[in-house]
Amino acid sequence: SQKIEQNSEALNIQEGKTATLTCNYTNYSPAYLQWYRQDPGRGPVFLLLIRENEKEKRKERLKVTFDTTLKQSLFHITASQPADSATYLCALLNQAGTALIFGKGTTLSVSS
Amino acid sequence: EAGVTQFPSHSVIEKGQTVTLRCDPISGHDNLYWYRRVMGKEIKFLLHFVKESKQDESGMPNNRFLAERTGGTYSTLKVQPAELEDSGVYFCASSRTTGVGFYEQYFGPGTRLTVT
After folding, report:
1. Can you say whether residue B55 is alpha, beta or left, with left for phi > 0 and alpha for psi between -120 and 50 degrees?
2. Is B105 helix (H, G, I), strand (E, B) or coil?
3. At the N or C end, where does chain B have fewer CB atoms within 10 A?
4. What pairs with residue B21 in β-bridges?
5. Average pLDDT, whole number, for chain A?
6. C-beta of residue A16 within 8 angstroms of C-beta of residue A80
């Protein structure tokens, strides 16, 4: 079955540094991969989508890469701020295209 | 534009009781999804409605769970009778009409269900 792994449960970095989160998937060749942000007590919020024919996507301080050979996506936050502290989720659409498959998420803590 | 709303935000019930969760999607969104996060696990898909029809209910754990979306607007998810392992956070999401391409799913804040 399709599976997503986010290698780190938690990541602690200092303000101003770049945070890099990893997402690996198996048993699937998705057309695109998504990243969501989740704050405590709230639902996931969509951040970025990257398609299989795109190597890299940027949005403000966010950058996502997608390597379909390695079956891996990297999510970068540059010049990190304490407000970036949250749980970041990697997600794929299932093969039926009807639902999202999520990783467990990586909780990022940015200290000032 | 109002977001996806869910009610209640928290529910604590005893094993064997019944609970009904409600989700109001964003107006005009034909697609409605239910997901669940059990402690320590990832968010998992339960089912998908397109308007009032169940498009995919492959993620429903068992027949103690019943989802409805009468009239294609709000949806309810009933758990009867509740078991301890049903505890978790239940999320609802909605999106525009599907077709070719990607349609962002908008999530509600979730209902935290605790079965004691």
Report:
1. alpha
2. coil
3. N
4. B77
5. 92
6. yes
pLDDT of residue A97: 75
For chain B, say whether A100 makes contact (Cβ under 8 Å).
yes
In the block, residue with structure tokens 């294609």: B72
A112 part of contact set with chain B, CB < 8 Å: no
CA of B58 vs chain A CAs: smallest distance (Å): 10
Q: How many residues does chain B have?
A: 116
For tokens 């996507």, what's the residue? A57
Beta strands A106-111 and A10-14 are: parallel
Rounded to whole angstroms, how far apart are CA atoms A85 and A110? 6
Chain position carrying tokens 């303000």: A15
> What are the beta bridge partners of residue A67?
A72
Q: Which of residues 29-68 of B touch A (CB under 8 A)?
A: 33, 35, 41-45, 48, 55-56, 59
Confidence band of A99 (pLDDT split at 50, 70, 90)? confident
